[in-house]
From TrEMBL:
Short name of any one Pfam family annotated for the protein: PDF2_C
Start-end of Acidic residues biased regions: 84-95
Residues of the Homeobox domain: 100-160
The species this protein was found in: Gossypium mustelinum (Cotton)
Sorted UniProt keywords: Coiled coil, DNA-binding, Homeobox, Nucleus, Transcription, Transcription regulation
Main location: nucleus
Source organism phylogeny: Eukaryota, Viridiplantae, Streptophyta, Embryophyta, Tracheophyta
A molecular-function term among this protein's GO annotations: DNA binding
Protein's UniProt name: Homeobox domain-containing protein
Length: 758
């Protein structure tokens, strides 16, 4: 017998129907079975008599409180019309049998009883016998009633989670079908996916370099066309050459004309949409159950989409499901930054991108609809564009256009809300509308001493796309681009800023650097190195990644670029090789291993197994893993210095490093400007694998061990300068060299952590 879903309590007429025959008696006799509880407002329990006694007890109870329930072994129920056809003798036999069945009564719990049981359930979904006994005495209920209530409550939440998981599985199945269909169409059409050229026999004469140029040319044309449309100077497809008067007319158009003429939306309509979005964000940030349900297994909050549709009157497709996959998450935290500076970092596109370098690869303010009240930006509305990434080329980026609205809700509370607007996206570039923002953002509450409480809500509507199997779980679960990721990054960056600005740094947190100016110069150089690393290894349209086959079987992606005039990097041809793998090791253990200078020789082939000495160690956060170090690797021939920036937060970790010129880094230690120091970073990105319950993983901190901690997704990236001349061509020898570094590093890590089969 399955679980009966009582999440929507039946009506009196429903229970009175003679055709209804529920086998609930068997469920409550079976100690191993549970039944889904009704909602808190209509919580009920079944009162049972002695199971072996005869008679129809409870016959005098009210109709709406008493339901006759057939036995589990009584066979299928018959309707009243069928019973009328039976012989008189059979009727008498049935009447005799019915007397032997025990009538059951549903008792509604009071609001106080429900409140007390809900409070205990949030603390302990599985109370022990002592807790149940104590609660039953307190509420005047039988211990069995308390036990059944908790069983029903757990089953109800589990049913909601299962519906959510089934929805995700169905979406994944649809995606696989679409991928299969697209592959079949591609094979039938037999054309190049990148440049659109037919793959006929004559293409054999085209060199690989010419083919690459065609691909780059097609991408550049698409970028130019997109920029023309966005800035409103030229309609799509128009020539850049024309009369001076027509060009001036386009440039002199006001912002309001821009929105009315191209987007087809009045400014008043945009303001109406963003004000509605603020109201929805406030409800999403403060509401509890039934809109948000906390998972018993993972502790994460899950959006009850059915409740969301009812609450906000969302238009759904004909089959009742959203047309695209929905990702919704919420996270609350405290950040160490004053409110005005925090608000400014959201409203300035460059500061916003710098605040989230591991998530945002591109960001721009397309236009300002309303400037707001200076200087606090209250009432500011602006159209923005962002390209969201993961630190791996295996996960496609997400390009999203949205309107951002900054509003002061009270003296101590502000809202930053993002919402996508259909006509805006369609008129900019309909081909890029693969990700939309439903009302998302954060509610910021000012606290004392430069602290702010932030409630972050992330609500995305994404088009189906192909995701590599390694990252499919973490992306499809909504963790990769969810509120937890944004909040953890925000807290980490704000803490880093506090440590950077500090003037009373303890000696133990700043060893090897004598002056405050030297400390700031080193921290600034390390931050620029980490930003460059994040910018170099994602799937952004800045890069063209090619898969390279290796003898050892690793999946390595390679891209190259030419640096002509950036003083922050070496000039010439730069090659970057990236590989992502899953390891049966907890993220904490993997991070501690990679950042430890005493174990660097175990994986770094450049150290040649020699000792590594710590020259400087600068703390940049409360966690001991957040630090910038300068290390010296000594060998027989020479001594190399390495600048290393290790970062960790509640979601991800990074270890970024670069070999530096000894003379140059020594001048930076004394406080000299580091902006012109050329640096080429390599490093590691570490993410949880998204599986909360994976057995047999290695964990370092046993005293804090969590049974639900899974393995790690490790991304290894190395960059090398292959030629100091920007006009030089990339050679296969250079590609093989950087591939060898990646392969050997991965092999050394697996050997040291004893997970060669991971």
């Amino acid at each position: 017998m399955g679980v009966v879903d009582m999440s929507n309590p039946p009506t009196k007429d429903f229970f009175a129907s003679p055709a209804l025959s529920l086998s609930l008696a068997g469920i409550f006799r079976d100690a191993g079975a549970t039944a889904a509880a009704p909602t808190a407002s209509a919580s009920m329990e079944v009162e049972e008599g002695d199971e072996g006694s005869g008679g129809g007890g409870g016959s005098g109870s009210k109709k709406d409180d008493t339901v006759e329930i057939s036995s589990e072994n009584s066979g299928p129920a018959r309707s009243r019309s069928e019973d009328d056809l039976l012989d008189h003798d059979d009727d008498e036999d049935d009447a005799d049998k019915s007397k032997k069945k025990k009538r059951k009564k549903y008792h509604r719990h009071t609001a106080d009883q429900i409140r007390e049981m809900e409070a205990l359930f949030k603390e302990s979904p599985h109370p022990d016998e002592k807790q149940r006994q104590q609660l039953s005495k307190q509420l005047g209920l039988a211990p069995r009633q308390v036990k059944f209530w908790f069983q029903n409550r757990r089953t109800q939440i589990k049913a909601i989670q299962e519906r959510h998981e089934n929805s995700l599985l169905k979406q994944e199945l649809d995606k696989l079908r679409d991928e299969n269909k697209a592959m079949r169409e591609t094979i039938n059409k037999a054309c190049c996916l990148n440049c659109g050229m037919a793959t006929t026999a004559k293409d054999g004469s085209i060199t690989a370099e010419e083919q690459q140029l065609r691909i780059e040319n097609a991408k550049l044309k698409a970028e130019v066309e997109k920029l023309r449309t966005v800035i409103g100077k030229y309609p799509p497809g128009a020539s850049t050459t024309g009369s001076c008067s027509s060009g001036n007319d386009q440039e002199n158009r006001s912002s309001l004309d821009f929105y009315t003429g191209i987007f087809g939306l009045e400014k008043s309509r945009i303001m109406e949409i963003v004000n509605q979005a603020v109201e929805e964000l406030q409800k999403m940030a403060t509401a509890g159950e039934p809109l948000w349900v906390r998972s018993v297994e993972t502790g994460r909050e899950i959006l009850n989409y059915d409740e969301y549709v009812k609450e906000f009157f969302v238009e759904s497709s004909s089959n009742g499901r959203p047309k695209r996959s929905i990702e919704a998450s919420r996270e609350t935290g405290v950040v160490f930054l004053d409110l005005p500076r925090l608000v400014q970092s959201f409203m300035d596109a460059n500061q916003w991108k710098e605040m989230f370098p591991c998530i945002i690869s591109k960001a721009a303010t397309v236009d300002v609809i309303c400037h707001g009240e200076a200087p606090n930006k209250n009432g500011a509305v602006q159209l923005m564009f962002a390209e969201l990434q993961m630190l791996t080329p295996l996960v496609p980026t997400r390009e999203v256009y949205f309107v951002r609205y900054c509003k002061q809700l009270s003296a101590e509370q502000w809202a930053i809300v993002d919402v996508s607007i259909d006509k805006v996206e369609e008129n900019i570039d309909a081909s890029l509308v693969k990700c939309r923002k439903r009302p998302s953002g954060c509610i910021i509450q000012d606290k004392t001493n430069g602290h702010c409480k932030v409630i972050w809500v992330e609500h995305l509507e994404c088009q189906k796309n192909t995701v590599h199997t390694l990252f499919r779980t973490i992306v499809r679960s909504g963790l990769a681009f969810g509120a937890r990721h944004w909040m953890a990054t925000l807290q980490h960056q704000c803490e880093r800023l506090v440590f950077f600005m500090a003037t009373n740094v303890p000696t133990k947190d700043s060893t090897g650097v004598a002056t405050l100016a030297g400390r700031k110069s080193i921290l600034k150089l390390a931050q620029r190195m980490t930003w460059s690393f994040c910018h170099s290894i994602g799937a952004s349209s800045y890069h063209t990644w090619n898969k390279v086959s290796t003898k050892t079987g690793e999946d390595i992606r390679v891209s190259s670029r030419k640096n002509l005039n950036d003083p922050g990097e070496p000039h010439g041809v730069i090659v970057c090789a990236v590989s992502s793998v899953w390891l049966p090791v907890s993220p904490t253990l993997l991070f501690d291993f990679l950042r430890d200078e005493s174990r660097r020789s175990e994986w770094d082939i450049m150290s040649n197994g020699g000792p590594v000495q710590s020259i400087a160690n600068l703390a940049k956060g409360k966690d001991r893993g957040n630090a910038v170090t300068i290390q010296a690797m000594k060998s027989k021939e020479n001594s190399m210095w390495v600048l290393q920036d290790s970062c960790t937060n509640a979601f991800e970790s990074m270890v970024v490093f670069a070999h530096v010129d000894v003379t140059g880094i020594q001048s930076v230690i004394t406080g000299c400007d580091s902006s012109n120091m050329a640096i080429l970073p390599s490093g590691f990105s570490i993410l949880p694998d998204g599986l909360e319950s994976r057995p047999l993983v290695i964990s370092s901190r046993h005293e804090k061990s969590n049974d639900t901690e899974g393995g790690s997704l490790l991304t290894v990236a190395f960059q090398i300068l292959t030629n100091s001349s920007p006009t030089a061509k990339l050679t296969m020898e250079s590609v093989e060299s950087v591939n060898t570094i990646v392969s050997c590093t991965l092999r050394n890590i697996k050997t040291s952590l004893q997970c060669e089969d991971g």
